[in-house]
Amino acid sequence: MSVKTAERKNVMSAKQTKDTLKDIDGVKLENSEVTLHVGHEKGACKEYWCTLHNRSPHPMRYMQQFWRSDRQIMERVCSHGVGHPDPDELIEKDWTHGCDGCCDVAMEYLRMNKRLDA
Predict the structure, then answer these.
(1) How far is residue 81's CA from residue 60's CA, in Å, rounded to a whole number?
(2) What is the pTM (predicted TM-score) of this model?
(3) Residue-level pLDDT at 22
(4) Predicted local confidence at residue 114, as pLDDT
(5) How far is Cα 73 from Cα 30, in angstroms, rounded to an integer?
(6) 53-to-4, 56, 81, 114 alpha-carbon distances in Å
(7) I need a labelling partner for 67 at 20 to 30 A (CA). Which of 53, 73, 91, 114 fits?
(8) What is the pLDDT of residue 61?
(9) In a 3-state reduction of DSSP, which class is residue 26?
């Protein structure tokens, strides 16, 4: 799965995120009781899709968000308990995961919206 270079504006780059990472007041993860207290300020992502502040209408929005601190990525946990990369996650990150197929519809969504190559 390769990312279209021209579409990188849709999500923040890893450098942009690293440059803005700090303690924040807290953002409640979607469909979760967890509040994340490390991230970037809300204004840093206003032009991008963001797993915290500006979520796209992707088809995995009903799934619980889960922050993987070991991999530094946001996941969506399906009804089978499998963590899938959140479609609004940084495009440069490694999206390798133990997939059960529940994210196929989200991957198609990203392709249709030109955020991923076919």
Answers:
(1) 14
(2) 0.74
(3) 62
(4) 73
(5) 15
(6) 23, 10, 24, 21
(7) 114
(8) 95
(9) strand
